[in-house]
Specification:
About 35% of the residues lie in helices and about 20% in strands. The two termini are about 35 Å apart. Helix 10 runs antiparallel to helix 11. Strand 13 and strand 14 form a beta hairpin. The strands form 6 sheets. Strands 22-19-17-18-16-15-23 form a 7-stranded antiparallel beta sheet, with helices on both faces. It is an alpha+beta fold. The protein has 15 helices and 23 strands. Associates with stalled 50S ribosomal subunits. Binds to RqcP.
């Protein structure tokens, strides 16, 4: 995991100016995340606390999020105990990924009380726990841990808080050169002894008793018990020192000039020098956060510079800025992927069915186009009944409709009379003639269905959690899906969706619709007649509106960038984007949601630039 004890130390150090700040508002935008709005000391800000099992973190954030209409129970409880409170301390437990935030507040009676928020950033075991400072009793946790989940500790209201299992590792910031070299030698000796010892009698014991014996063997905080430093120095450092991630251990080896494939052993003096070159600035709170890609092409981040990243590292002024950029919307995108998998499967299946249907209709249309041929065959047969006999498989007749009077061969059913063969062709003619109109109507409708499914699939690529529910509601309203909500009193839904609003470099608002509900609201209800409307030409995408009559080329180009970025052509270059005034945009009667026609347009060609789009200030507005 990239978020190690060093990163945690950097986070806690960065948050020290907020000691004395007041907790203004608390929100819970998702199952695992809390947002604290801090005011006062430190200049105020937005603090994200996340117990996401894949992306646990804590840092200042500028990211906008949509909060649920009704706050979850844990959020309500945090508001009750922490809103209006003052932050008294923000500390790290040793070099572990555990942060304590102590808050002083007043209860319902006006008495002063102290609470402690414990943030455990430990992968799938991550948690945010609110405790009473005086008693150490858990008030509640964002994730409950029952006895059936863990026999070691319980995270439930009323239980006494117990720290996660101790790893008995050494604090890397408190180790000097002599001790480091001694630990290295001791670990080497312990590893050799462990490899040469004969099996002890208790090792022959199996089952529950063996587990009990192993649990009673408390590891020593001396770096022993892990791999031999001469064989696996990285593994030894990760095993011996708390807060040490494989990423940092690998960086130490790189600075020490150690290569696994070289066949040599790690020199204690060189290893210590590299170890100290990292720990000294960390000890003094000197951090230089970076992101980049490791040798395997995997994105990584660090609170200290990494030699392994070379010149491709991206540097940040704060650890919060680093984490914000690294994580981006990864957590939300993962949640969105889980929520939309059924919708993507349904829409893909519907699109495939309609593609097959369109191919069949095209075949029927090609056959129907031959309707005149069947009429001519019938008329020629009627005019030449005396020359054709029952049992003939074909008739060679002069085609009076051909200006050259060429001979034509007409296939016959030998079981029918010449007259019946002629009638059969007339029936085919009438059938195809009547079906031409129906086939064309079906073809247009099927093509619209394909475009509609592709448009929804494109919208799901950029959808937030809130956007997904709006798309799902749209499919229910259109009759594609059943309403899965429980019967009974339904909540009245707002007719004003939450919209992404960007501010151009010229200070002009640019509205982006990310689903059909938002597209229709932006285009048909919010925008004025002289506002400028943009959309990718013949490509599924978002409706983008510049809400001003006066703006420069920079705003127009940025709006076109947004239209191209929020479209199916996001990864393409020279994307055609049409722009026109809202007065020239209209929705045809009976058209699918989000579908419009327009004229008086001009076409711009832009290549979406993600970095440029991310640099534009944006907010969520409803």
């Amino acid at each position: 995991m990239a978020l190690d004890g060093i990163v945690t130390r950097a986070i806690v150090h960065e948050l020290q100016p907020f000691i004395g700040a007041r907790v203004g508002k608390i929100y819970q935008p998702s199952t695992h995340d809390l947002i604290f709005i801090l005011r006062g000391a430190g200049g105020g800000g937005k603090l994200l606390l996340s117990a996401n099992p894949t992306y646990p973190r804590l840092h200042l954030s500028d990211r906008n999020s949509v909060n649920p209409a009704e706050a979850p129970m844990f959020c309500m409880l945090m508001r009750k105990h922490c809103e209006g409170g003052t932050i008294e301390s923000i500390t790290q437990v040793g070099m572990e990924r555990i942060i304590h935030i102590q808050i002083r507040t007043r209860d319902e009676l006006g008495d002063v009380s102290a609470k402690k928020i414990i943030i455990e950033l430990m992968g799938r075991h991550s948690n945010i726990i609110l405790t009473d400072l005086a008693t150490g009793t858990i008030i509640d946790g964002i994730h409950h841990v029952t006895p059936s989940i863990s026999s070691y500790r319980i995270v439930m209201p009323g239980a006494a808080y117990m720290e996660p299992p101790q790893q008995h590792k050494l604090n890397p910031l408190a180790v000097g050169q002599a001790e480091f070299i001694r630990l290295m030698a001791s670990a080497e000796e312990a590893a050799l002894l462990a490899g040469s010892e004969e099996e002890e009698p208790e090792d022959m014991i199996e089952g529950d008793i063996a587990e009990l014996l192993r649990s009673l063997e408390e590891p020593k905080a001396d770096g022993s018990g892990g791999p031999a430093p001469s064989v696996d120095p990285m593994g030894w450092m990760v095993h011996a020192f708390s807060g040490m991630s494989p990423l940092i251990a690998g960086e130490i080896l790189l600075r020490a000039g150690w290569r696994h494939n070289a066949g040599g052993t790690a020199d204690p003096a060189q290893l210590w020098a590299a170890f100290d070159s990292i720990m000294s600035p960390v000890r003094e709170f000197q951090f230089s956060p970076v992101t980049g890609y490791n040798a395997k092409g995997k994105p990584v981040f660090s609170a200290i510079p990494l030699t392994s990243l070379g010149g491709d590292a991206k540097h940040y002024s704060s650890i919060s800025a680093c984490l914000e950029d690294y994580y981006g919307d990864k957590a939300e995108r993962d949640t969105v992927k889980q929520r939309v998998s059924d919708l993507i499967r349904f829409l893909s299946n519907e699109r495939s069915k309609n593609v097959k249907k369109l191919a069949k209709l095209q075949k029927d249309l090609a056959e129907a186009d031959d309707a005149d041929q069947y009429r001519i065959w019938g008329e020629l047969l009627f005019a030449s009944l005396h020359t054709v006999s029952k049992g003939d498989k074909e008739a060679k007749l002069v085609n009076y409709y051909d200006e050259n009077q060429a001979e034509i061969t007409i296939p016959l059913d030998p079981l029918l009379t010449p007259s019946d063969n002629a009638q059969r062709y007339f029936k085919k003619y009438n059938k195809y003639k009547n079906s031409l109109l129906v086939i064309e109507e079906q073809r247009i409708k099927t093509n619209e269905e394909i475009i509609y499914m592709e448009m929804l699939l494109q919208q799901l690529e950029h959808a937030s959690l809130n956007d997904i529910e709006e798309i799902r509601d749209e499919l229910v309203n259109q009759g594609y899906l059943r309403d899965r909500s429980k019967k009974g009193k339904k909540k009245k839904k707002s007719t004003r969706p939450t919209l992404q609003v960007y501010t151009s470099s010229e200070g002009v608002d640019i509205y982006v619709g990310k689903n059909n509900l938002q597209n229709e609201y932006v285009t048909n209800r919010l925008a004025s007649a002289n506002d400028t409307w943009l959309h990718t030409k013949d490509i599924p995408g978002s409706h983008v509106v510049i809400r001003s009559e006066e703006f420069g080329d920079a705003t127009l180009e940025e709006a076109a960038q947004l239209a191209a970025y929020y479209s199916q052509a996001k990864q393409s270059s020279s994307v055609p984007v049409d722009c026109t005034l809202i007065r020239h945009v209209r929705k045809p009667s009976g058209a699918k949601p989000g579908f419009v026609i327009y004229d008086h347009q001009k076409t711009l060609f832009v290549t979406p630039d993600e970095e440029r789009i991310k640099s534009l200030p944006n907010v969520l507005r409803s």
